[in-house]
Amino acid sequence: MIRVLLVDDDALVRAGLRLILGGAPDIDVLPGDPSDGAAGVAAAREHRPDVILMDIRMPGTDGIEATKMLVGKPDSPHVIVLTTFDSDDLIVQALRAGASGFLLKDTPPERLVAAVRSVVAGEPILSPSVTRQLVEKVTGGNTSGYAAARDRLSALTARELEVAELIGSGLSNADIARRLYMSVPTVKAHVSRVLTKLDADNRVQVAILVHDAQQG
Asked: What is the largest CA-CA distance in the chain?
């Protein structure tokens, strides 16, 4: 069973998430329903979830600070941040804090369940549509980083560059595997090398580099 903790200050959101996830046979939604980051951290340390669905905007300790407190320690949970389009800047901060990805609060139920399963399998979740909007917002149409981005991407092999460009399109590992006729483990190995060579912390940073490199 995948143990999931819900951290959100909106009781209706928590109830909806619990209803959706509770219907999956392999997911166990943990008790507590913490409504702020500090309570979420305490609940995580008590219940040791595999995945936390974490709201970003909460009173007191927000989702970013809570993620920093939880991620990077032995057996730390995977954190998926929940957001709306108006909090794009905070998404970047959350990913830098170690979140495994982000979802919109109106994500269809089947994708929400799939996202929980994917992060447990080691695949970060980045919605293609949100990734594109996020990259556009972060770069602001600025082309000044073109040369630097192209220089960093030149460290990749031809195949790694293909993988990086598909990451930039918001594709999952499974989608990349189908597109490039590879196995998922092979794609994961390429993604790991891309992150290492580009000194990137997450897939969004790769997407931003790809975006910058294409603006010249």
From this structure: 51
For residue 25, give its domain range.
2-126
Helices (H), the chain: 11-22, 37-47, 63-70, 88-96, 109-120, 128-139, 146-153, 158-168, 173-180, 184-197, 203-213
Convert the pLDDT of each residue in 26-71 to its tens digit: 999 998 889 999 999 999 999 999 999 999 888 888 888 999 999 8
Q: What is the DSSP string of 54-113?
A: EES--SSS-HHHHHHHHTTSTTPPEEEEEE-GGGHHHHHHHHHTT--EEEETT--HHHHH
Size (the chain), residues: 216
- Count how many domains the chain has: 2
pTM of the model: 0.71
Q: Per-residue confidence at 133, pLDDT binned at 50, 70, 90?
A: low
Please enumerate in sequence order all residues whose Cβ is within 8 A of that of 26, keeping only pairs 6 or more positions apart, or say none. 1, 2, 117
Residue 137 lies in a domain: no
195-207 pLDDT, tens per residue?
A: 999 988 777 778 8
Quick one: 40 and 115 in the same domain? yes
Distance from C-alpha of 115 to C-alpha of 106, rounded to nearest angstrom: 13
Residue that is written with structure tokens 């031809």 in the block: 158
Three-state SS for 3?
strand
12 falls within a domain:
yes
Domain holding 171: CATH number? 1.10.10.10
